[in-house]
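Data availability (excerpt). The following record was deposited with the supplementary files.
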Amino acid sequence: MESQLTILLPVAAAWLAAGAVADRLPRLRNASTLRRRTGWLLALTLTGVTLTAGVLAGGLLSSGTAPVHEAATGLILAAGPAFVAAVCSVRRIRRLRAGAGAFASAPGTPAPHGLRAAAAHPLVGLPLQVTALAMVPALIAADGTDLGAEPGVTGPAITVGALMVIAIGVRHALRHNRLAERARPDAPRSARAVGPLHV
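Predicted structure:
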């Protein structure tokens, strides 16, 4: 059990750190800081994807009693959001870093609302945070606690997990929409302001 936990802890730490960095990106108002933190996020996400893929591949190549096989079994729940992070989040993070780099040449340049809205997009932070959340059952099982053996625990645990995923997704969507509205040019206050003059 201890070796299985040793295998899973670095994976969980990478996803947890990536989720925390992604959550703070839209709050950054400086373009150079946004570019630097996006670089951190890209490195953490690639580390999480690599470690997850390595453990899953090791589990396929090992026997059923090996610690890496048991660790890979625990990672099955996290494999889905980790795959979404590898396919969608990494691409968006790279584009966000390139966009922030275009504004970061002068020190103190503020980050445009459009970049902050892109940083708040659900496909940037949501897969990372859901993967970190999906690591919790694997860590609990690796610690020696069998939640499935305790009656009345599995159902509420699944419900709480689903509600947390929904809450995280709604939070990302609301923040993205708020920043996207700020990024739009000011609309005219009334049709009369842009209509033809009548004399």
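Summary of structural features: The chain has one domain: 2-185.
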